[in-house]
Specification:
The protein has eight helices and two strands; from the N terminus they run αββααααααα. By secondary structure, the protein is mainly α. A two-stranded antiparallel sheet has the order 1-2.
Length: about 210
């Protein structure tokens, strides 16, 4: 009869989130927020800051978050879902996952084609890399004082995000309305026409006949 060899168990310790250092948390791009009975310092959310100031509304925040999820999904294959899955949801397979990831990547490319390259970079700075207004302002306009730097950044962020509100839905609609065997340049043309309000309904337009 073989003896069972007992091997020692090694506990895998998880790293504890200690939060930002006191020096980092003291910087102006952090806010004091309440968590239970205590207050902590959390990095300021740019979208929330712009929404509180009245520069953008909830619809802009929603579109910005959708663009962000598409970007992360297309680049890394990680799908972040904010809402609960609907009842009766059927999990896809590797093929539907690949198709969905490709669609997300194409939406990012369509939006990018409707914006300038500089505006696309601003979306990455604001939504993906989460640079603060003070960080962006100091790097872009070092000759200005901090207040002027932040004011310029907020204005530029407002312009780019409001342009995204027109570009992203146009990209979605172009994907849905384009013919099954259409090419990317054709879908890009349809998306741009939707964004510029040259057409209201692709199926009723004779522009592409």
């Amino acid at each position: 009869m073989k003896k069972t060899i007992k091997r020692p168990r090694h506990e895998i310790r998880q790293a504890q989130d200690m939060g930002p250092t006191p020096e980092r948390a003291a910087k102006p791009d952090y806010d004091t927020v309440a968590e239970g009975k205590k207050t902590v310092r959390r990095k300021r959310c740019i979208l929330a800051t712009l929404e509180r100031s009245g520069r953008i509304d909830g619809s802009v925040v929603t579109i910005a978050n959708r663009w962000y999820h598409d970007y992360v999904f297309s680049q890394s294959g990680i799908l972040e879902i904010d809402a609960e899955l609907p009842e009766g949801y059927v999990k896809g397979d590797v093929h539907t996952f690949a198709i969905a990831r490709g669609k997300a990547g194409e939406r990012i490319s369509l939006v990018r084609s409707m914006l300038t390259e500089n505006e696309h970079r601003w979306l990455i700075f604001l939504l993906v890399r989460e640079f603060s207004m003070s960080e962006l302002g100091a790097s872009l306009w070092p000759e200005l004082c901090r207040t002027q730097q932040i004011a310029r950044c907020e204005k530029q962020a407002e312009i780019v995000l409001k342009k995204l509100v027109n570009a992203y839905p146009a990209a979605q609609k172009a994907q849905v309305d384009a013919p099954p065997r259409s090419t990317f340049p054709q879908r890009k043309k349809i998306a741009l026409d939707y964004m510029q309000h040259k057409i209201q309904d692709y199926s009723k337009s004779h522009t592409y006949a």
